Write the structure tokens for this entry.
Amino acid sequence: MFDKILIPIDGSEHSMKAADAAIKLAKIDDGEVEILYVSSNVNTYRSRVVYSASTLEKELTEEAEKVIAQGAAKFKAAGVKYTTKVLSGDAADVICQEAEQNGIKVIVMGSRGLNAVSSFVLGSVTNKVLSRAHCPVFITK
């Protein structure tokens, strides 16, 4: 039932709590977890770029690697099989596409991400994934 789990992470406290929940679910069915970080495209920042696009891309890549490493450490310490992936684009769209294309059985997400102002009850990405995903979405607080 929980043999393929997707955990989108962004480094927030909520996504790290979601990682803990994904570990528990994975241990139920000896599941494998895909840790996904969705980065913004450099093009997203075109109107706000104060320095070169290559510098911004480097910083976005470093942030992705840092967050992925933080998430991977949790799964490694727990002895749960995992893979990591970094994609770019609209977070909700990318999460839903990734889940559908890879036969994910459940998406485990935090109720909010780093942008706590984006929505009162649920984060905007979480809300979009909840309404668009082809599979169950497990939301942690």
About this structure: Residues 4-140 form a domain with the Rossmann fold fold (CATH 3.40.50.620). The chain has a mean pLDDT of 86. The chain has one domain: 4-140.
